[in-house]
Amino acid sequence: MANESRPCPCDIGDRFDYGGRGQEAQVEHIKIYICKPPASTDKAVIVIHDIFGWQLPNTRYIADMLAANGYIAICPDFFVGQEAWKLSNDWASFDDWLKTRNAGKIDKEVDVVLKYLKEQCGAKKIGVIGFCWGGAAVQHLMLKNPHLKTGVSLYGVIKFFEDRFSLLHPTFFIFAEKDEIIPLEKVTLLEQKLKQTCKVDYEVKIYPGQTHGFVHRKREDINPQDKPYIEEGRKDMINWLNKYL
Q1: Which of 11, 179, 226, 236 is catalytic?
Q2: CA distance linking residue 107 with residue 243, whole number of Å
Q3: Active site includes 132?
Q4: Cys-Cys with 103: which of 27, 28, 136, 241 at CB 3.0–4.6 Å?
Q5: In this predicted model, what pLDDT tens digit does every residue of 78-103 receive, in sequence order?
Q6: Which CATH number describes the domain made up of 23-244?
Q7: Among 212, 216, 226, 236, which one carries the catalytic annotation?
C-alpha cells in the first residue's frame, strides 16, 4: 500500500503512449537517448529526467519536441543504471531511495555528455532543461557549470538548493500554482532571493491552476482546460532556449 503522504507527486498526470523518434546509445559509462533535428546545428539541449528516469515516454516526447525545434536533444540516464522510481514502490521508502540519487551529484555525468556533444555532435552552444528532480539538477548546474549557456527548470524541487542563488547563466523557472510539493511561498522566496543576489537574467513564472508535472505529464487532448497552459509552458521553454542559445 503506497504511503498517502507522498513526498513527490510526479505520478500525477498521464504517462504517454509514445515510442520516440530518437535512439539509445552508450557514451562511456552512461546510456543516453538522443534525437537530432532534420538540419545540422551546433546547438544542443541536455534533458534531465524526473524520478521516473530517462526512459519515461513523456520525457522523450519533450526531447523530440526540442529536436523538432532545431536542437540536438540528449537525455542521459543520470541514475547511471540504478532503478528509476516505480508507481508500485512504497512512498514510505522514497527518502531512502533518493539518498542514492542526488541531483547535486551529476557533474561527472554532465562532463561526459558535454564532451560527447562537442566532439561527436559538433555542439558549441549547450543548454539544459529538467523536470522535478531534474529541475533541481538544472538549478545546481546553473550555479556551478561554466560550460552551459542557459537552463530551464520545470517545477524543480526548491528545497534541494534553496540557500544558493548566484546563478552563472540565464535561467527560467517554471512553477505550477497548485503544486503539492512546491508551495507558492517557497517560489516567492526564491524570487526575492534571486532579485537580491542574481547578476544574470532569470525569470520565475507561475502557471495558474496547474499541478506538478503539467508541462510533460499532462496531455492537452484529454485535459482541454489545461491545454493553453501546457502549450504556453512548452512555448516559453523553447523561446527561452532560442533567446540564449
Answers
A1: 179
A2: 25
A3: yes
A4: 136
A5: 999 999 999 899 999 999 999 999 99
A6: 3.40.50.1820
A7: 212
